[in-house]
Amino acid sequence: MSRPQESQRPLFPFGNPFRMILPKGSHLSPRLIALLNSFEEALAERLRKLKPKDSEDVLTLSWMRLAMDSLCAVHTDIKTLITALELPVSDWDDKWIDVYLDNSVKMLDICIGFSAELSRLKQGHLFLQCVMRNLDSIPSKQFIRARSSLDDWKHHITLKSSKTENCFSVLDNLVATLNEPKVKNSSKGKVLLHAMYGVKVLTVFVCRIFAAAFSGSSKKLMDLHVPEKYLWAEAFTSLQAFVNGEIRTIYSSGGVTVLKELQAIHVVVKKLYPLVEDGPNSMEAEEYKNCISNLGKSASSFSEGLDILLKEVDGFFQILLTGRDALLCNLRVGTDVSSPVQRNSNLEQVVR
């Protein structure tokens, strides 16, 4: 009985991943195997690209944008796979739909929490702008105001948001649903849920990294175990070990934040603060001038990076929202109900 399946094996140079997840007698057509193989290889490649080249690239805003862009791409890939499977919603198991809708609500909540935290960090830029304006002048009164603004900035940046803590609770619930559901009598359903597992793993991993970065602690980082049967397992394990390891190293060594652009501002502020306590003397004039210049560049880079990352998070929010709305609309075929997407504002409006 195994003879007819041997012709399919070249599709999997590292072995057939389905031998571990499909019960005896199960059969996937060459087309279904090709679809899933294509999805998993694409996911593996995204994971490989997401692995930083060195430790200095971990948790830069550019890496975070790439991570969020990868999430958007993978969630788009799963929608493309669903279309290719030609699996009508009417054939979906009620449990699949319930889990999908429940998870999508959790992910929307996480996006709102991330957007709120990024907006809060963005607000800190106002204090740095006040510092720069006050340091344009030499009078001692301006130095006093600059010190006050620096104090306000340091206090603002170290505040912890309850929304971030809530993100960890939501992610814990998502982790509890990571186990791939069993599917009976549906080859297409097996392919769909096998692929969705990959989407959920990457989503939980990236969002956990973001939450850890915003919380200022590595205590709630989590190392997810992915079975070797998945074609993207090796790429994911390598990525997770590298990024989690670097974050733990930074926090264990007393780092204030793992956000690299924010670290750069902290370094400049630490040098600048003593110089504005009484005003720089002639020996410190050059260092003072360099600090002001570096602060301006670092603050501007951080602010611009936050703006771009906010747009990426909003883009992910919209992908989740439209995917959820498309499913709900398909479930309501034959009813005169307007699309929920027309009744939802964008992420920035939700946060406000």
TrEMBL record:
InterPro entries: ROH1-like. Its main location: membrane. It holds the Pfam family ROH1-like. It is found in: Membrane. Keywords: Membrane, Transmembrane, Transmembrane helix. One of its GO terms (cellular component) is membrane. It is a single-pass membrane protein. Belongs to the ROH1 family. This is Uncharacterized protein. The lineage of its organism: Eukaryota, Viridiplantae, Streptophyta, Embryophyta, Tracheophyta.
